[in-house]
Amino acid sequence: MRTVEHLLAALAGSGVDDARIEIDGSEVPLLDGSAKDWVEAIAQVGVVAAGDSECQEAGEISSSWVLQEPVWVYQGDAFVAALPAPTIRFTYGIDFEQSAIGNQWYSWTPSQESFAEAIAPARTFGLVHQIEGLRNRGLIKGGSLENALVCDDSGWLNPPLRFSNEPVRHKLLDLVGDLSLLGTFPVAHFLAYKASHNLHIQLARALAQQIGASCVSCQGSVVSDS
Question: 185: how many CB neighbours lie within 10 A of its CB?
Fold first, then answer.
């Protein structure tokens, strides 16, 4: 299944860690290019406890273990890391030659700022030449100026933006979605710069190697996933 990160981010940001999803096709609908529609649909139906598990508060990122040592992956000057921290936090930085994007940073703490308001509305973005490349690979078949921000050297082709730093907020959204593949987030500060889905997944794999040992050592306090 392709392009799952927006839906997965919406589930994680809405506090959903157990769901059954049926899709007819090989690609999740792009909708408006953000996680906004997914988050609103989840809020409309509500979140309930599954079986005997405790239902976390809506909008609460699921976490059941604490990161003890830094973990990071990098490629050139791009990197993504997980650092020990007292609370879950995500910080992202991007740097593009196009002046409309430029250098942007954004930091989001789930316990202090709503995913639905601060992250979910941020739409995917790309450069004109990248769009053609994705279409040639059979991706973003439903893509248009209605569901993605597109930029060239002269600026945005379809303003206005929902946030002045919408691109970096969307990259943070992607990171949340990719790391949600872990099933549960460690309590850590996730820090990324010029990273990609590939680097996000590499970090998830590195963290997955630690989850088993961490959960075994704190069996009494782990919230079981259904």
Answer: 23
- Residues annotated as catalytic are 197
Identify the burial level of 147 via C-beta atoms within 10 angstroms of its C-beta, where 0-12 means exposed, 13-18 middle and 19 or more buried: middle
The DSSP result for 32-53, as a single string, is TSSSHHHHHHHHHH-----TTS
Residue 226 lies in a domain: no
Give the residue among 221, 34, 175 at the shortest CA–CA distance from 116.
Answer: 34
Q: What is the pLDDT of residue 62?
A: 73
Q: Please report the pLDDT score of residue 108 as a whole number.
A: 98
Q: What is the pLDDT of residues 156-212, one digit of tens each?
A: 999 999 999 999 999 999 999 999 999 899 999 999 999 999 999 999 999 998 876
The domain containing residue 72 runs over which residues?
5-221
Q: To 10 degrees, the CA torsion angle through 108, 110, 113, 116? A: 100
CATH classification at residue 87: 3.30.1700.10
The pLDDT value given to residue 92: 98
Domains: count for the chain: 1
